[in-house]
Amino acid sequence: MFKGFSHSVKGASHEASGLVCQDSSAHFVCENYAVAVVADGHGSKKHFRSNMGSQFAVEATLDTVANFYKDVENFEKTFPLNHKFVIKRMEKQIIANWNTKVAAHLKSTPVTAAERSKFSSDEFDQIPPESYYGTTLIAVVAGRGFTFGMQIGDGSLVAVFDDGVALNPMEYDESAPANITASLCNASAASYFNAFYVDKKKLIAAYASTDGLYTSFGSEYDFIDYHTIITSQLAVSSEFEGAVIKNIVKRSHFGTQDDVSLSCVYDTELIAASVDLLNEKVAQNKQKAAERKAKMLQRN
After folding, report:
1. pLDDT: is 293 or 271 the higher one?
2. I want to staple 253 with a disulfide (CB 3.0 to 4.6 A). Which of 12, 119, 153, 198 is the partner?
3. φ, ψ for residue 8 (rounded to 5)?
């Protein structure tokens, strides 16, 4: 049985400048699958509606996964046989659903004079309407017998499988050119997605987060270890979800002081059965962290 939680927090820099939170997050759990999803609106000048864009990205993802799961038996039977092709179809459907939501919002809420005032006429005319809503997207889906996910743009996805090791399972191919931000608003967004699929390991927990969380840590090691700690605590305390949310509120004031979103789904039965293993991994990670610190002190 899966459970989940999700939360988005406005970063300290946005609080200081009066900007709205550009992040969105959500999770969904049902009998057949669970989804954790986050999106980070770009927030720069031409992406002046990216807070809505990130919300639409989250909604489009949940809608798309639900649509593919309409015939549960058929999906679970055929998906493992051709998962790369099906995930690509999902990504394209997410883009299409997102564009539909963007077009509907633009029609019902035309660009205001205040929004246009930040641009010259020539500048504004050169911005594709979908760019107003530019956003990243990260999603992970836990099914019965497999786990998969997709990502466009920055942010992180961390999974803890039944060996107790926290890792990023995403297969990155660096498809976006160096001078282009991978975004749902790109004309060729479908080619900028990265994805993963795992079917030989049972998922204990999976986490999707925007880049504001990663930048609040001193190293990638600390960031990955953080997810092992969360997973170990979820196993023993039903109240720990609230503690995690309080922690990311604090972390929104560290690092780049950016907005922070974290979404998680976890298997309650498997996590309860893995308490000793998870505690062992936490202890091992602490030892490795101490060893890394000692080596750094020796170099200095």
Report:
1. 271
2. 12
3. -125, 140
Strand, helix or coil at 1? coil
- Looking up tokens 């990243």 gives 136
Structure tokens at 220: 């990638």
Q: Which of 136, 209, 135 is nearest to 168 (CA)?
A: 209
- Does domain 2-177+198-299 bear CATH number 3.60.40.10? yes
pLDDT, one tens digit per residue, over 91-115 is: 999 999 999 999 999 999 999 999 9
Domain boundaries, the chain: 2-177+198-299
CA pair distance 134, 256, nearest whole angstrom: 20
What's the N-to-C CA distance of the chain in angstroms? 49
Helices 240-251, 220-234: axis angle to 10 degrees equals 160
Are 11 and 41 in contact, with CB atoms under 8 Å apart? no
* 98 φψ region: left (φ > 0), alpha (ψ -120 to 50), beta (else): alpha
